Amino acid sequence: MIRHSLREALLSLWRNRFMNLVASFTIAVSLLVLGLFLLLAHNLRSVVAAVGSQVTVSVYLRGDATEEQRDRLMDSLRGRAEIEGTEYLSPQAALEKFQRLFPTMREVAGELEENPLPASVEIRIAEGHRDPDSLRQLAEEMKRLPGVDDADFDLPWVTRLRDMVAMARAAGVSLGGVVGLAAILTIASVIRMTIYARQQEIEIMRLVGATRTYIAAPFLLESSLLGILGGVLSLGALYAIHRHLAASQGGLVPVLRDLLTTSFLPRSTSTLLLLLGLAAGALGGLLSLRKISL
Amino acid sequence: MVELYHVNKDYGRGNHALVDVNMAIEKGDFVFLTGASGAGKTTLLRLLFREEIATSGKILVDGMNVSTLSAFRVPTLRRRLGIVFQDFKLLSRRTVFENVAMVMEVTGVPRRQQRVKTYTVLEMLGLNHRVRSYPLELSGGEQQRVAIARALVNEPALLLADEPTGNLDPNLSWDIMTLFKTINIRGTTVLVATHDKDLITRMGKKVLTLDCGRLITH
């Protein structure tokens, strides 16, 4: 049974190789579209991860805050799950940091008679707590402590990046989905043509008592193989694009090129693309068999 | 072997292919089904191998209730039957051997057994020198003998033949009928639909006649 199906499927793939290649290409194109967006999302996500570790809440102390108040503040932050670490910045350290970050303003700062920068505590937020609500809550809590002048956090562009990841994925899924649907229908009609071409043989097999499964299996196998082939083609094309862009200069917006070349899809996502190809092929096969009496 | 009780087959719009047909064919019988073109011979045969479903009535074939048979069980029924058609229905891309062995391939018979049984049946039908030929290289009579070999290779309980000699000249037709007689003597029940009156007379077997969908002689 398995040998029969495999032999028939391979034979049929070879006989209609041109049409089959077209069908595989449509699957490959849809998976390539999806794959490009997934690659974008994948690299965007690593950017987000890198940037995310810089999410902090800054607590500014009042000029007249006592040492005791400062210690109490530091004590209250110790051992909390949402906090990855803390750093105390004295006014002097804050000034040095400012001068390091903005070298052109160095002289302006030097001309000041008095250091205008307050002492502050930088709280690095642990992963899983870097959402606006948690940050706002922590900042509010800090503000209520004695000796604290103000607390704020800088988040908006991190969330915007994260939104972009979600958008890239959604775009990939919906665009890929539309093209994928076309691919499934193409496979279905190619397989249906194969079935029509072999109508006589199918009729005879039915008459001598072949089961539906026995008759249908080769066609289903054929369409699934077409799907996998599409998946392999798309992965190959995606990898070729990835390597080509990495090797070439210019041509694309630099940011976009970076997002396509930094790293390739992880193995799980590549496998997913192959499986999607297989699923599209199998679905096309089922669709073509549905309306035909076997 | 075959029993029909009040079988009707309508194709809609007043097209009654079979009207209240009652009949019985005993195990080991050789029966002709005759009647003018369009009398319902082919329809009746198609009901027996469940290519079509009766509008009403009950049909039993080799103990199976064909009228209530689920699609899933149809292959089981057909494996007990051998079917021969006027147009042979051979696969032109397959050799004589493959055309016959296919029946067993489909049912999962081991390769070795397939070979033995195929060669045996082809030899019995005098086709052993044609094993590797393709159907289109054969004469009409030879092609029909291949089709009969295919029908027999599974040792069916019942052989159904729909105008098996319709495309053959009288001499070849007689050869085929003699073949059927031999098969019948070996124990297979045979039902042949034909409108060839001469052949029926010469054979001297039991005859069922259909006229406009009604069975008129028993």
Write down the Rg of chain B: 17 Å
How many beta-strand segments of chain A? 4
Order of helices and strands of chain B: EEEHEEHEHHHEHEHEE
Please outline the major beta sheet of chain B: 6 strands, mixed
* Low-confidence runs of at least 5 consecutive residues of chain B: none
* Largest inter-chain contact set: A-B, 15 and 20 residues
Shape field of chain B: globular
Structure classification of chain A: alpha+beta
Query: What percent of the residues of chain A sit in helical stretches (DSSP H or I)?
Result: over 70%
Whole-number total of structural domains of chain A: 2
How would you characterize this protein structure?
The complex is a heterodimer of chains A (294) and B (218). Chain A is of the alpha+beta class. Chain A has 2 domains: 2-50 and 159-290, no CATH class; 56-154, 2-Layer Sandwich (Alpha-Beta Plaits). Helices cover 71% and strands 9% of the residues of chain A. Chain A has 11 helices and 4 strands; from the N terminus they run H-H-E-H-E-H-H-E-H-E-H-H-H-H-H. A 4-stranded antiparallel sheet of chain A has the order 2-3-1-4. The longest helix of chain A has 42 residues, at 156-197. Chain A is elongated. The mean pLDDT of chain A is 82. By secondary structure, chain B is of the alpha/beta class. Chain B has 2 domains: 1-80 and 156-218, P-loop containing nucleotide triphosphate hydrolases (Rossmann fold); 88-155, no CATH class. Chain B is 34% helix and 26% strand. Chain B has helices at 41-48, 74-79, 96-106, 111-124, 140-152, 170-185, 197-203, and strands spanning 2-10, 16-25, 30-34, 56-61, 64-65, 81-85, 158-162, 189-193, 206-211, 214-217. Chain B has a 6-stranded mixed sheet, sandwiched between helices. In chain B, a hairpin with a 2-residue loop joins strand 9 (206-211) and strand 10. The model of chain B has no long low-confidence stretch (mean pLDDT 89). Classes of the chains: A alpha+beta (294), B alpha/beta (218). At the A-B interface, helix 8 of A face helix 2 and helix 3 of B.
